[in-house]
């Protein structure tokens, strides 16, 4: 299942805090789509250190969309890949 959070209107550190809170509660097979106005480079290292994978794509309503799932979760990664390849 995909969960969408829009942090594009938040000022720092809001986008980072909201993103980290959202990914912490991910269930197996789920992923999060973060809608962001900037590419959140600092977020990537934090996600990786906490056991998450991510992929960043151009957004449709925002500049960037960051898809995040738990590392090793094959079902979530497959869902992300399917979403990206549409």
E-strand count: 4
Average pLDDT confidence is: 96
Provide the helix percentage. Answer: 25-40%
Instruction: Sum up the overall morphology in one term.
Output: globular
The radius of gyration computed from the alpha-carbon positions, rounded to a whole number of angstroms, is 12 Å
Distance between the termini: 16 Å
Q: Summed up, what is this model?
A:
By secondary structure, the protein is of the alpha+beta class. It has helices at 14-24, 41-49, 74-84, and strands at 2-6, 31-36, 52-58, 64-70. It has one domain: TusA-like domain (Translation Initiation Factor IF3, 2-Layer Sandwich).
Strand and helix layout:
Layout: E1 2-6, H1 14-24, E2 31-36, H2 41-49, E3 52-58, E4 64-70, H3 74-84
Parallel strand pairs: 1-2
Antiparallel strand pairs: 2-4, 3-4
Descriptive report:
The chain is an alpha+beta fold and 86 residues long. It has one domain: TusA-like domain (Translation Initiation Factor IF3), CATH 3.30.110. A four-stranded mixed β-sheet has the order 1-2-4-3, sandwiched between helices. The longest helix is centred in the first third of the chain and has 11 residues. The chain starts with a strand and ends with a helix. The model has no long low-confidence stretch (mean pLDDT 96).
